[in-house]
Design goal:
5 helices, globular, 140 residues
Length: 140
């Protein structure tokens, strides 16, 4: 199958308006403004997935210290691209990124995507219905 997308960490490629509109209408987005989305992008390690014609398919960001911890946030696939496997592709690419691979602990919160993240090694944390993590740090 021919690859009909590409993934980039170049923030200049991001369609911030499309990202903001999706997030503002999500259950977690709380009507986030364009300025707020721009600020979160400026302060995060970001991933975009695009068609070969540079159309935004999806977006994700990781808040990280670049050594120990990364917090997955705003993992989205725009409506017209949902149900085509792009969410799995994006999460896999993030986890294979050299910066993310070296982190000791990854965490996220989700209300409805547990099965997606479990396939990539995330586990629920305690009794929380939302929190999940991958913890590679060994503490004796």
């Amino acid at each position: 199958m021919e690859q009909n997308y590409f993934i980039s960490t170049d923030k200049n490629l991001l369609n911030v308006d499309a990202i903001q509109q999706f997030i503002a209408n999500s259950y977690w987005g709380d009507n986030r403004t364009l300025e707020e989305v721009k600020t979160t992008i400026e302060n995060s390690y970001c991933f975009g997935i695009y068609t070969l014609k540079n159309e935004q398919i999806g977006f994700a960001r990781v808040v990280t210290d670049y050594i120990y911890f990364g917090y997955f946030m705003d993992v989205i696939i725009l409506d017209k691209f949902q149900g085509q496997g792009y969410g799995k592709i994006l999460v896999k690419a993030i986890l294979e990124d050299t910066t993310i691979k070296k982190l000791k602990t990854l965490a996220l919160k989700t209300k409805d995507a547990h099965l997606l993240y479990e396939r990539f090694g995330f586990n629920k944390i305690g009794d929380s219905p939302l929190w999940m993590s991958v913890d590679k740090q060994i503490l004796d």
